[in-house]
# Entry
Amino acid sequence: MSLDEASQKPLDRLAAALAADMAAVNALIATRMASEHAPRIPQVTAHLVEAGGKRLRPLLTLAAARLCGYAGAHHVHLAATVEFIHTATLLHDDVVDESARRRGRPTANLLWDNKSSVLVGDYLFARSFQLMTETGSMRVMDILANASATIAEGEVLQLTAASDLATTEAVYLQVVRGKTAALFSAATQVGGVIAGAPRAQEQALFTYGDALGVAFQIADDILDYAGGAGIGKDRGDDFRERKLTLPVLKALARADAEERAFWDRTIARGRQEEGDLARAQAILARHGAIGAARAEALDWAARAREALARLPDHPLRGILDDLADYVVARIT
# Structure
């Protein structure tokens, strides 16, 4: 590996290795997000799709297919499908969370309205199912349809669990595996399916995606309290939205009566005052909650790397291995 390659982030290396495939995905996305009769659809979609996202999920699909020796064209359809599902969930999430910022820009629901965000999200879900049927694979459709249902289930579970101080780490993990990891694991698994990979390799790809998705979400939850500038959202968004993420759950498990009363007021009852975010960060620091959450993220990253050992020897496998480390390295 050259010095230039070594200095690149794994995601940039993955994008470079799959540049031709990704160009085809972007062209397909641009074509399929068009609407002859409703110009707001491409306007809203383009605002999010072109906002500088890293396209991690479609890259995972492309990488899995190529890693397993695929030489056809349907991996492009599947990568576009995965990106449409992801974009649809973001549009819906921003309405549910009443978010004002996404990827450093105003959210679509803020620029247009909630109705537009919800309906355009629905349109993208429909487009994703049109795309996946074009592969002609019932197994692919089964995996992606199940993932879509699991994502929605995870989001609904989060609605009921996010502000409940009785929520356990097991429930948190269930939410994360639904709302985030389900699309990661589907993205990698369908790449293997379309390539006709053996079931053992297909399962390894699923396991890699699942573990990578969990590590990614835990890291994202940590960044909400400990991240610097450029994280794509305002620090403290999860706190303001009263979400019981892993760092808070770690602190809650060690809380004294005064600290528990603080979490009850700010998270359970939503009565937040100026200075509460700083106090929350101080409590997390006092109990080593960020470090404990980071240790779990590292463990999930290790599980992802272990799964890769069952896949064919390929340059892309090395990049995916580095990627598992990188999603956690964001929080060092």
About this structure: The domain at 7-329 is CATH 1.10.600.10 (Farnesyl Diphosphate Synthase). Strands lie at 101-102, 105-106.
